[in-house]
Amino acid sequence: MTGEDIVLRKKLTRFDLQKMKEEGRRAVWMTAYDFVTAQLAEEAGMDMLLVGDSLGMAVYGYSGTVPVTMDQCIYHCEAVRRAAANTFIIGDMPFGSYQVGIEDACRNAVRFHKEAGVDCIKLEGGVRVAPVIRAIADGGMLVMGHIGLTPQSSGAQGGFRAQGRTAESARAIIEDARAVYAAGAFSMLVEGVPPEVTAMIRREVPIPVYGIGAGDCDGQVMICSDILGLFQAFTPKFVKRYGDVADAYRKVFAAYIDDVRGGTFPGEEHVYRMVAGEADKLAG
Ligand code: KIV
């Protein structure tokens, strides 16, 4: 990307994303939870950024996404929005923010927009959340569905495991895709399903179908700390690591410790000297 591209770049709209799908241009996006990452992602030309509830694991060290709160999501969305003013940002509705009732779900979707300036919200589930999607979309907000492996309900799904591997389970996911589309979602994310099932979904619905662990789609999302090689706890099969940033961290931390303990940091170039003559006055 050239300097000129960066200056001329404008934030994508739902219509741009739809056009990209129709022209066979894949959208590339990833999660971001903090200012610096979002700034670098925008500079690199990422099409969208998701402030995912995966921040529960990636930032807070929880074992899953269930404990993540609305306030945590809003704080991180605010930081990402400040860093990436020209990028389409997706706020992820955390567990508990849309399960209690439709009115509560709409109120939380509104919070994402008013307090954090997101461009759309994403929520997990198909047939069972269709009335919630309908209500939020009727409120004039863009909704991205999320079907297949849905981490917030991993307990009900028997763990973090691929979905749609039997004909019966695949049929249920395709039914979910139809319901998400019919309820007014402008796009959907399909997670952890075989590519054959993804291909059927793409034939069923005319909106963009994005994937993570779902084969070829209208675009891909990855978790930032996974592609960086920073998240250490586990690496799902569908992740491709593009770097070993954890190793870079280790090397930097070890070198810093060595320097301080060995007295080579701070050096002359890292200190502030007194104004000429002032040290003498102090001594006198
Ligand atoms: O929270 C998240 O990061 C997600 C991923 C599956 C993309 O929803």
Tell me what the structure shows.
Helix 9 links the parallel strand 6 and strand 7. The protein folds into 2 domains: 241 residues, TIM Barrel, CATH 3.20.20; 36 residues, no CATH class. With 284 residues, it is of the alpha/beta class. The longest helix has 18 residues. The mean pLDDT is 95. It has an 8-stranded parallel β-sheet with strand order 7-6-5-4-3-2-1-8. The chain is elongated, with a radius of gyration of 23 Å. It is 43% helix and 13% strand. Helix 5 runs parallel beside helix 6 and helix 6 crosses helix 7. The site of 3-methyl-2-oxobutanoic acid has 10 residues, from loops.
Per DSSP, the total helix count is 12
Structural class: alpha/beta
Helix content: 40-55%
- Would you tell me the overall average pLDDT? 95
| CA-based gyration radius | 23 Å
Which CATH-level-2 architecture of the largest domain? Alpha-Beta Barrel
Number of domains: 2
**CATH H-level superfamily of the largest domain:** Phosphoenolpyruvate-binding domains
H-E string:
HHEHEHHEHEHEHEHEEHHH
The hetero compounds bound to this protein are: 3-methyl-2-oxobutanoic acid
Low-confidence blocks of residues: none
- Name of the CATH class of the largest domain: Alpha Beta
Biggest sheet overview: 8 strands, parallel
Strand coverage percent? 5-15%
How many strand elements?
Answer: 8
**Major sheet: order of its strands?**
7-6-5-4-3-2-1-8
Under CATH, the topology of the largest domain is which?
Answer: TIM Barrel
Euclidean distance between termini CA atoms: 59 Å
